[in-house]
Amino acid sequence: SWADEEAYFGWGMEASPNAMLPFTERGRLRLAAASLHPPGHPERSRLAAEAEEDFTRGLAIQPDEWVVTTVDRLQGNLGLATALYYLGSVGVAEDAYRQILDKWPTSFQAMHGLGTCLAERGLAAVEEGNEEVGLDLLERALVEQIGALEGAPDWAAALHAKGLVLARLGRSEEALPDLERAAEKEPGNRGFVFDLAQAYWEAARIEDFERLIAGYLAGETDPQQRAAVRFQAGALELGRAEEQLQAGGDPAAAWSC
Q1: What is the mean pLDDT of the chain?
Q2: pLDDT for the residue 218
Q3: Which residue, 57, 110, 59, 60, is CA-closest to 85?
Q4: Are 55 and 23 spatial neighbours (Cβ–Cβ below 8 Å)?
């Protein structure tokens, strides 16, 4: 179980305080647990802070005194950058990913992380009315996600991120294949499934939208997850109904059931 693994690596940190692996692995477990919670959730922040501490302690081990491999250092730095991003320190995380790429220029994980930070900053700039800056950041984010996929062509997270950036750039038709592949590779990932559902809805592919939502609900046993998806799908349908009403059309035409 997760708790058993965490305890195991905690024991490893005590038994071998100058070995990076247990620090990195416990940090990885905590990041995985943090990712299950939405941004701003207290549990996400708590777990990310604990992960940051693990990665920081691991990276403090001196490679000139103890056996520390290049892979150990890379994974530790990637974990620290991701923990910072989860904590909401987007600018600091972006700098950390850039530093990783300076030393490991082919790290597809760092490209993905940098692209994610750039996209977040780009969306924020657009929302603030600075569209030129925002679109430039989104274009740069797209380049990073494409680079990540060159290193890991089937990585669902990078496929999903690339699709979202394309959609935000108004290139919805190009976005759909990437969002579809991400959802196919991780059909249980509610975020991936719903982002694809939203893309279908915005492209007026209502049958695909209905099929995707129905398929997810058929395989999801958690009542809370099922309720969340039903709520999100209903919100999209309500939005379409309001648009129909404002345009003078029949709001009933917006509903899928």
Answers
A1: 89
A2: 86
A3: 110
A4: yes
